[in-house]
Amino acid sequence: MPRFGMVIDTRKCVGCMDCVVACQTENDVPAGYCRDWITTEVRGEFPALKMEIRSERCNHCDNPPCVSCCPTGASHVADPGRVVLVTANKCIGCKACIAACPYDARFVHPKGYVDKCTFCHHRTKDGLDPACVAVCPTHCMAFGDLDDPASTVSTLLRTRAHHALLPEAGTKPRIFYLT
Amino acid sequence: MLETTITRSNPLVDPSLAVWSWEIPVYLFAGGIVAGMMILGGLAMLRIAKGDDPRTFFSLHTPLFAFMLINVGMGALFLDLAHKLYVWRVYLTFQPDSPMSWGSWVLLVVYGALMASALVRLPQAWPWLGRRVPVLQTLSDAITGSPGRMRLLGWANILLGAGLGIYTGILLNTMVARPLWNTGLLGPLFLVSGLSAGAAAMHVASVFLPRRPAPEGMLGGAISALVQQLGPEPPERRTVDTLIRADIAFLAIELVLLGLVVVNLQTSSASHAVAAALIVSGPYAWAFWGVIVALGILAPLALQWLELDHRIPHTVLPALLVLVGGFALRWVMVNAGQASHIVHAAGL
């Protein structure tokens, strides 16, 4: 079974938020909420400043704390791709998973269940890219099987310097940022 | 310098996590008091099984009180759920990695133990109920008439109470994303705080409740029993003194554990030190030092010490302060814990 992951080139990302809008449209995300977002970090002291723009979302961690804390099994790991999903009619809305996520990637949907990025599971199981990846105008995002050495994501991770978010949390995130 | 801008603005998540409001602190506080009462009541049962006079153990009245309190806690927990109609899903599965799943199932056993324990004092507490439902009287006699059964129930109360008390801390403790909760001392701290609050709640109940007449009649008795479950006999003076002595010990241990939690966090990683600063010198410092430490621990410690020394008259004030401090502890830990997060090394 594949292990889906995402690689995002921060040197190409311009923070246009096309990925955010595409996700909201594709997944019917309620107004005022988002499953993905743009983070801009500026480091250093003027004039020696460095900026990194990142498109962020659920990291579909290999060791997901949101899954282990869920009392009903609503938060679960699903194939294809070992992605982390939430079954709405199993979720009781206890919000433990929201508190457990170091990336603050989850939220309470207005209908009461917890919602988050699914890597567009309805698309990826048919071999399509997630909506955010498909619409990116700078092609800064790549999606694929991290366990396949020939995939684009594996090739990029072998050849380019990269980092993940909060690796110290021990969650083994599967979104990587090229630097 | 690190400047971060995030376009995300999800309700209850941004600008800082606030998914749990007053309901969870109330649930943890009620659970803590019940845990404390179960342990104290269980200890009393062990003494009675050895042949001590049951009338001297006021804590035997507490299972009825604890049963009502656990319902208050569970009610608060239910109110917190965002997808309430699906709450039954918890009991269709067991998730061994989820503390909340463990807690849900353990609470069922706690309910059973509390109901069985309530039968111990049924003849004195709810005489009308024993007359109307004779099987309850029979069960009560079966428990109180056998030291072995009493001992078994006592140990069940102690073990379940300890489990419940520690669980209220473990529930938060396992969330790696919130550094303020990442200390193994949180479980013992909540357990001892629960013991202290349990003793204080019994102290308060011993002062107020026995002065009223015992409930009678079917409907009126049932309604009045909900608020007056302890019967007409006031506890003996030495029982109240024992509760005060126990509370002094619990408060002293709680103070030490609270200090260790702070030291534990401050000497851990940068994220944990930043989290500790939230309660020690940050926005929650007033509640931590002022309400939890000064009003909730130091003041009742001093007052109860002076009471036992006969320098000031006995009042219910220290017990009320302990209860205020116990709730404040849960409120601060839940709210400051949500505000804590893993800190980027570059942001330091």
- Helix/strand/pairing category of chain A: alpha+beta
CATH topology of chain B: Formate dehydrogenase/DMSO reductase fold
User: Termini distance of chain A?
Assistant: 29 Å
Shape of chain A: globular
Subunit arrangement of the protein:
heterodimer
By DSSP (H or I, 4+ residues per run), the number of helices of chain B equals: 13
CATH classification class of chain A: Alpha Beta
SSE layout and pairing:
The complex is a heterodimer of chains A (179) and B (348).
Chain A: E1 4-9, H1 18-26, E2 37-45, E3 48-56, H2 65-68, E4 75-78, E5 83-86, H3 96-100, E6 107-108, E7 114-115, H4 121-124, H5 131-135, E8 141-145, H6 152-159, E9 162-163, E10 175-178
Chain B: E1 2-6, H1 23-49, H2 62-80, H3 99-118, H4 122-125, H5 127-132, H6 134-144, H7 147-173, H8 186-208, H9 219-227, H10 237-266, H11 270-280, H12 285-308, H13 317-339
Could you characterize what this model shows?
- The complex is a heterodimer of chains A (179) and B (348).
- Chain A has 179 residues and is of the alpha+beta class.
- Chain A has a single domain, classed as Alpha-Beta Plaits (2-Layer Sandwich).
- Chain A is built from six helices and ten strands, in the order βαββαββαββααβαββ.
- Chain A has helices spanning 18-26, 65-68, 96-100, 121-124, 131-135, 152-159; strands at residues 4-9, 37-45, 48-56, 75-78, 83-86, 107-108, 114-115, 141-145, 162-163, 175-178.
- In chain A, the strands form four sheets. In chain A, strands 8-1-10-9 form a four-stranded mixed β-sheet, covered by helices on one side. In chain A, strands 2-3 form a two-stranded antiparallel sheet. In chain A, strands 4-5 form a two-stranded antiparallel ribbon.
- In chain A, a hairpin with a 4-residue loop joins strand 4 (75-78) and strand 5 (83-86).
- The model of chain A has no long low-confidence stretch (mean pLDDT 96).
- Chain B is mostly helical.
- Chain B has a single domain, classed as Formate dehydrogenase/DMSO reductase domain (Formate dehydrogenase/DMSO reductase fold, Up-down Bundle).
- Chain B has 13 helices and one strand, in the order E-H-H-H-H-H-H-H-H-H-H-H-H-H.
- Chain B has helices at residues 23-49, 62-80, 99-118, 122-125, 127-132, 134-144, 147-173, 186-208, 219-227, 237-266, 270-280, 285-308, 317-339; one strand spanning 2-6.
- In chain B, helix 3 runs antiparallel to helix 7 and helix 10 (237-266) runs antiparallel to helix 12.
- The longest helix of chain B is centred in the C-terminal third of the chain and has 30 residues, at 237-266.
- Chain B is globular, with a radius of gyration of 22 Å.
- The N and C termini of chain B lie close together (8 Å).
- Residues 211-232 of chain B have low confidence and may be disordered.
- Chains A and B meet through strand 2, helix 2, helix 3 and strand 6 of A and strand 1 and helix 3 of B.
- Strand 2 (37-45) of chain A pairs antiparallel with strand 1 of chain B, so a sheet runs across the interface.
